[in-house]
Amino acid sequence: MEPIIKVRNLYKNFGDLEVLKGINLDIAEREVLCIIGPSGSGKSTLLRCLNMLEEITSGEVIVDGNDLTDPRVDINKVRTETGMVFQHFNLFPHMTIIENIMLAPVKVRGLSEGKARQQALELLKKVGLSDKAEVYPDNISGGQKQRVAIARALAMSPKVMLFDEPTSALDPELVGEVLEVMKDLAKEGMTMVVVTHEMGFAREVADRVIFMDEGVIIEEGTPEQIFKNPQNTRTKEFLWKVL
Amino acid sequence: MNYFITHMSAVFPFLVKGAVYTVIITAMSVFFGTVIGLFLGLGRLSKKKFFSIPSSIYVDSIRGTPLLVQILIIYFGIPNLYNMITGDRFTMNVFVAAVLACSINSGAYVAEIFRAGIQSIDKGQMEAARSLGMTHRQAMRYIILPQAFRRIIPPLGNEFIVLLKDTSLLSVIGMEELLMQGQLYISRTYASFPVLLEVALIYLMMTWSISRWVDYMEYKLGVKR
Ligand SMILES: Nc1ncnc2c1ncn2[C@@H]1O[C@H](COP(=O)(O)OP(=O)(O)O)[C@@H](O)[C@H]1O
Ligand SMILES: [Mg+2]
Fold it and tell me: Which ligand has the minimum distance to the alpha carbon of residue A45?
């Protein structure tokens, strides 16, 4: 089957700084891909190139058949196919939880308020936050915020979900509830790309793990291969440090 | 004491009339200044040089020159320029010149307030909005500007207070606002101290009211979340 995301020879520079140096990657539908690697290796940048939050310097990124570098492609439309969850949640603080979730379906998809509300309530139930619908983001915990952020992204019915270290900003006791929601999503067959330092999650949920360093993919394989039997010395060193 | 009371009450109706002009000019200039300021502020933040460069030139030149000079240019300078170019004469209406000068001036300061307010919103807000498929314009309208407006209220209120006080400069072109009304009375009676004191007190009352109103707005918007 045709991969839902294809990355070909992707380069990304910030001025003189070369951050991604020729990334090639295929992501299949229903696949859960975890990206690991030291800080500064370009993981976030790669993820952000997948929905054009970063401009691509050269190469190709094809999402669901749309070449993102093609100026004729409506980037706003393609972005609705890829939900993104950020390390710092980025909830809209001036809106209640349910308004956060309803906004894009109403304004972007043109859904009626009633339909959007109903859908938002279902999503809140799914992430276990039905009682927080009318609360403002400042009044819930980090774990709850991240679950809302996931619900907000899901409200656009994306084909792929991108997660950029979704639990890194959380107190340790709140990490579990977010990972649970993500595991449920994976079980439902959502295609997921997850940048994470949660090796337990990667081991348990990922179909494939990629180890990145200094802007290149050093090694990739099943969690089994990467965690039990890494081939590259840099992978070994990294895992030795974090495990 | 009697002298005081006599003059303060005699001048009062004139000052009220002047104060009404002061308020009207301030209110209109605040309105136009905010509209100009919003566009200039967005213009300065634009990636397109076509918008950002003219906006910057406007803001820098207005903020870099005295309001008094701007008032004089608009009231005396522009008719002179018109005369130079076309050979015809026209006299600027004082009220129009007053509102024009104050609007143009406050637009530049409001632009900076908007720019700072918008820039103070975390980058992640725009990214989250865009990642949901919103256009830049939608993200501005629903996410960035509503948050920026809250932060802008105190400096904006402050700018309105400054503007209200600065309308006193309009007396140089004969606009019969609060200070001018006082001066007209003084020129007839020489009762400068009681009249100027009363003028000052009326300014104080007006600025005090604005600042209470700003506090109230801040409170109202602050407790909502
Ligand atoms: N907007 C930016 N401007 C300049 N440099 C950036 C920008 N974003 C990231 N970088 C740099 O790119 C490199 C990779 O960053 P990032 O993708 O965030 O790494 P990771 O997510 O793996 O920690 C880092 O050296 C970082 O400083
Ligand atoms: Mg990162």
Answer: 1
Written as one string, the DSSP assignment of B91-130 is ---HHHHHHHHHHHHHHHHHHHHHHHHHHTS-HHHHHHHH
Q: How far is the CA of A168 from the centre of ligand 2 (A)?
A: 10
CB contact under 8 A, A53 and B133: no
The residues of A whose Cβ lies within 8 A of any Cβ of B are 51, 53, 76-77, 79-80, 82-84, 86, 88, 90-94, 103-104, 107-108, 136, 138, 149, 152-153, 156
- Residue A165 CA: nearest ligand 1 atom is 21
What is the C-alpha separation between B13 and B16, in angstroms, rounded? Answer: 5
Extract the residue ranges of chain A whose pLDDT is less than 50.
none
pTM: 0.87
Residue B217's pLDDT is 85
- Percent of chain B residues topping a pLDDT of 70: 98
Residue B218 predicted with pLDDT over 90: no
How far is A204 from chain B, CA to nearest CA, in Å?
28
B93 touches chain A (CB under 8 A): no
Would you list the domain boundaries of chain B? 2-220
Q: Is any ligand 1 atom within 6 A of the Cβ of residue A42? A: yes
Give the model's confidence band at B123: pLDDT under 50 very low, under 70 low, under 90 confident, else very high. Answer: very high
CATH number (1.20.1250.20, 1.10.3720.10, 3.30.110.10, 1.20.120.140) of B2-220 reads 1.10.3720.10
- Please give the pLDDT value at position B225: 45
| Residue percentage of chain B with pLDDT more than 90 | 89
Q: Which residue has the tokens 């509209």?
A: B35
3-state helix, strand, coil in chain B (%, to 5): 85, 0, 15
The 10 Å Cβ neighbour count of residue A84 is 26
CB B56 within 8 A of CB B154: no
Give the whole-angstrom CA distance, residue B149 versus residue A159.
Answer: 35
